[in-house]
Amino acid sequence: MVAAALHEAIAYPAVGAALDIEHVNHAFDIDGVVLPVLEDVSLAIEPGEFVALLGPSGCGKSTLLRLVAGLEKPRSGVLREDDIRITGPHPSRVVVFQDPTLFPWRSVWDNVALGLEAQGILKSQRQRVDAAIDLVGLSAFRKAYPHQLSGGMAQRVALARALVNDPKVLILDEPLGKLDSLTRITMQAEIVSLWQRKGFTTLLVTHDAEEALFLANRVIVLSDRPARVKADIRVDRPYPRHRGDPYLADLRRQILGLLGLDATW
Q: What is the CATH number of the domain that holds 206?
C-alpha cells in the first residue's frame, strides 16, 4: 500500500525548471544608508541542474536565494522561472532553511502536510504526505513531535515538507549547517539521492567548498559584498562522489584560492 502511494504521489521524476537571473542588483536601506548587496549578477541554470553558491560570509548568497524564491524583489534586473518573470513566491519554488522551523505542537505528519493544507487540497491528497515522509525515511516517526526528533531527523521533516509540493525548484539555504559532521555526511548523500530521483532544479547556499563539490553539478563562486560572479565551475564527476578524489581536491584548492583561502590548504 505504501509503495503504491509512493509511486502514485511523488516517486516519478519531476521536471525541474530553468532559472534565468539577468543583471540583478540589490541593496538594503539601513537607517537611510544604502548598502549594496548584489552587483550585476547573471546566471542561466538549466532544468534539473544542481548549483551551489559559495562566497564569503555576508556577501549576499542568501539574499540571492530569497530573490529566486520570490520573497523579495530586486532593485533592478530580472529573474525568470521557465521564461516567466518571478514576482513573488510560488509553490513550484520551495525553500529549506538552516533551521527546520517546525511547529512544535504539530506532529511530523501535520508539519509535512502544511503546504497542501494551505492550498486547500489536503483532503484529496493525503497520500502525498505519507509518500513524502516515506521518501525521507521517517515512516516510523510520522506521529512523533519535533521535540522527539534529532537535528538530522528534524531537517528530514523540513525536506519532506518541501518535497510534498512536488517543486520544480528546491532552494537550500545552508540546510545542513547546524548538524554534526556524521549526520551532515549522511544528509548530503540523501539530498543527492532525492535530487536524482525527483529531477528538480536545486540551488544551494553553503560555506563548505567540499560540500558544494560533493553535491553540485556547478559551483558559483561569489565575491565579497556586493556579490558578483567570480567563477562558474563545472564539476565533471559522476555520482556517487568520493571525498578523496584528486579531481575534487584540485577543484577545492582552486575555489579556496578564489576565496583568498589557498594558504589554508
A: 3.40.50.300
Which residue type does 196 have?
A: Q
Which residue, 20, 55, 75, 35, is CA-closest to 230? 55
Q: What are the grid coordinates assigned to 187, written together?
A: 544528509
Cα dist from 12 to 30, 156, 194, 254, whole Å: 46, 20, 11, 37
Assess whether the previous peptide bond of 240 is cis (omega < 30° from 0).
Answer: yes
**Cα distance between residue 29 and residue 209, in whole Å:** 31
Sign for the pseudo-dihedral over CA of 111, 113, 117, 123 = negative
DSSP state at residue 14: P
Backbone dihedral angles phi then psi of residue 45, each to the nearest 5 degrees: -115, 125
Asked if 189 and 38 count as a contact pair (C-beta separation under 8 A), the reply is no
Residue 115, pLDDT score: 84
Summarised one tens digit per residue, pLDDT across range 188-225 is 888 898 899 889 999 999 989 999 999 999 999 999 99
DSSP 4: H
Residue 19 belongs to what H/E stretch? strand 19-30
Length, in residues, of the chain: 265
Using one digit for the tens of pLDDT, what is the confidence trace for 113-170? 988 888 888 888 889 899 889 888 889 999 999 999 998 899 889 988 988 888 999 9
Q: Phi, psi (5° rounding) for residue 148?
A: -95, 5
Q: How many folded domains does the chain comprise?
A: 1
Contact 210, 264 (CB under 8 A): no
- Give residue 115's domain range: 2-264
Burial class from Cβ neighbours inside 10 Å (0-12, 13-18, 19+) for residue 230 reads: middle
Strand partners, 33: 30
